[in-house]
Amino acid sequence: MLSTNEMIISVVFAVSLAGILAYVFWIQRKQAKQGLGAVKPETSGTSTPLKLQAYERLILLADRIALPNLIGRCNQAGLTVREMQNLLTQTIRQEFDHNITQQIYVSPEAWDAIRNLKEQNLLIINQVSSYLPDNATGQDLNKSLLEMVMQNPKASLHHVVSDALSFEAKKVLV
């Protein structure tokens, strides 16, 4: 399992990343309230459904790559820690690649949020798995990841990202 110092380093890094992202979204909301970041009305309503669908898909993506949900879907008995690490990271990358075209319909900030969530989760999985011994099981990795998320819910960015995407989707409707 992870030592206390290693766990603290991982959590501090994840919380810092979450804080930076939260600050970016706070600035964006502040600008939107002042009218500086408001979405301009479309001359035709044909792109609005596409934008809304893109936000829906990205919210779903954020939920699917959230560590607790990902572990629940990918949990397989009998895997080594490295096999589980590969399965989790490969699943995140596949989910992300499947939705990569949605970036043309959403704001750059929204896409950056999704990309940051993906990178944060990959980093956490790789860091936690690197602290486990080679003879550890995939279940050990899953348990360590879930313990980290439970000990520090702020280390998980998916709620912040989902809220930001929902906020932007609502701006499209206005």
Care to describe what's here?
- The chain has 174 residues and is mainly α.
- It has one domain (4-31, 46-173).
- It contains seven helices and no strands.
- It has helices spanning 4-33, 47-64, 67-74, 81-98, 108-131, 138-151, 158-173.
- Helix 2 (47-64) runs antiparallel to helix 7, helix 4 crosses helix 6 and helix 5 packs antiparallel against helix 7.
- The longest helix is centred in the first third of the chain and has 30 residues, at 4-33.
- It is globular and about 55 Å long.
- The N and C termini lie far apart (49 Å).
- Mean pLDDT is 85; it is low at 36-43.
Considering the chains and any ligands shown, give keywords for the structure.
0% strand, 174 residues, 7 helices, mainly alpha
Secondary structure: elements and pairs:
Elements: H1 4-33, H2 47-64, H3 67-74, H4 81-98, H5 108-131, H6 138-151, H7 158-173
Helix pairs in contact: 1-5, 1-7, 2-7, 4-5, 4-6, 5-7
General shape: globular
Report the sheet-strand fraction: under 5%
> What structural category do the secondary elements indicate?
mainly alpha
Q: Please give the oligomerization state of what you see.
A: single chain
Q: Identify low-pLDDT runs.
A: 36-43
Helicity, as a percent range? over 70%
Tell me how many strands there are. 0
Overall average pLDDT: 85
Count every helix, treating DSSP H or I runs of 4 or more residues as helices: 7
Q: Biggest β-sheet: count, sense, barrel?
A: none
**Rg from Cα:** 18 Å
The total domain count is 1
State the distance separating the first and last CA atoms.
Answer: 49 Å
| N-to-C SSE string, H for helix and E for strand | HHHHHHH
